[in-house]
Write a structure and sequence with these properties.
There is one protein chain. By secondary structure, the chain is of the alpha/beta class. It has 9 helices and 10 strands. It has one domain: 3-Layer(aba) Sandwich (Arginase, Chain A). Strand 3 and strand 4 form a beta hairpin. Helix 1 crosses helix 9 and helix 2 crosses helix 5. The longest helix is centred in the middle third of the chain and has 22 residues. The protein is globular, with a radius of gyration of 18 Å.
């Protein structure tokens, strides 16, 4: 193999301090990074794929114009103010620490860097960031999320020459209420979500189809397994996404649908994300940006991210 798969990541993301006992904590990213670097350094032929990973610091680009295209500027200023006065809570689950505002902007930069890489290099990428984003709405954060990374990235992508349509696939176990709300009014954006129902945040009914029939919600009952995903993909998600005809796909890659995850009740296994990644590849080829959302069992999260990246790297090697 002679290929670089970019993982946009910074150790600075650990500075988003959610407090003792919070499930969305710095250990999530360190578990993923440690696992991937162990694969890189194992010397085993089975882990040769991991030697193609390139660790890239997010750029110092100005992202505020892109953030404020999606979020109410008053809310963005509120986040900044909370951080500057030493931190606080947006709600009982959603924490702003002194560094959280700057790191939320850095996370956005990683996603935008990923869009640029995918489009310019015609090659997939992964934004390994926190805080996550898909629950954040226009004027409030919630569900551990501060800024809607995927929605910001999708709107940004439409400003790139040659991109006229962008699809977001959200495979996090929770419905991305924020992402849906922030893209459904734009006919050039599509949103497709696999998620457990009933579950937080209580949105994402199949009847929610967007202002332009550009939303497809696929609620799954507790206990759903890979076969359930495969059927929904073949019968509904793939035709929906194929008909939309996106130039670029953004994946809100949450990994809390694994059976080991403490915050949900679905039954995927980490290696199932190889199937999911390959299914996306068959539809889009290399024009895919993956960005981290949820996933709260450290081992399952790390192995699931690795399964995604491995599949993308191996598909690139086959197609090159």
């Amino acid at each position: 193999m002679n290929y670089r798969f970019p993982v946009f990541y910074s150790s600075l993301f650990a500075g988003h301090d959610t407090g003792l006992g919070h499930p969305e904590n710095a250990g999530r990213l360190s578990a993923v990074v440690d696992h991937l670097k162990n694969c890189q350094n194992s010397g085993l032929q089975a882990d040769e794929w991991a030697t193609q990973i390139a660790w890239i610091e997010p750029s110092a680009r100005s992202v505020l114009p892109h953030v404020c295209r999606v979020h109410d500027p008053g809310y963005v200023n509120q986040l900044d103010a909370i951080a500057q006065r030493g931190g606080g809570h947006i709600d009982s689950d959603t924490v702003v620490s002194p560094q959280s505002y700057d790191l939320a902007l850095l996370a956005v930069a990683a996603w935008l860097d990923g869009v640029d890489w995918v489009w310019q290099q015609k090659s997939p990428a992964f934004a390994l960031v926190r805080p996550p984003g898909h629950h954040a709405e226009r004027d409030r954060g919630m569900g551990f999320c501060l800024l809607s990374n995927a929605a910001i990235a999708a709107h940004y992508a439409l400003t790139c020459p040659g991109i006229s349509r962008v699809a977001i696939l959200d495979w996090d176990v929770h419905h991305g209420n924020g992402t849906q709300a922030l893209v459904e009014a734009n006919a050039n954006l599509a949103y497709c979500s696999f998620h457990q129902s009933p579950a937080y945040p209580g949105t994402g009914a199949a009847s929610e189809t967007g202002q332009h029939q550009n939303v497809l919600n696929l609620p799954l009952p507790p206990g759903a397994q890979l076969a359930d995903y495969q059927q929904r993909w073949a019968d509904q998600a793939r035709p929906f996404l194929a008909d939309f005809g996106a130039d670029l796909m953004i994946v809100s890659a949450g990994y809390d649908a694994t059976q080991a995850d403490p915050l949900a009740s679905l039954s995927l296994q980490p290696d199932d994300y190889r199937w999911f990644t390959h299914a996306c590849w068959e539809l889009m080829g290399p024009r895919i940006l993956f960005g981290l959302e949820g996933g709260y069992d450290f081992s399952a999260l790390a192995c699931s991210v690795a399964a995604t990246i491995r599949c993308a790297i191996e598909n690139c090697a086959v197609s090159s």
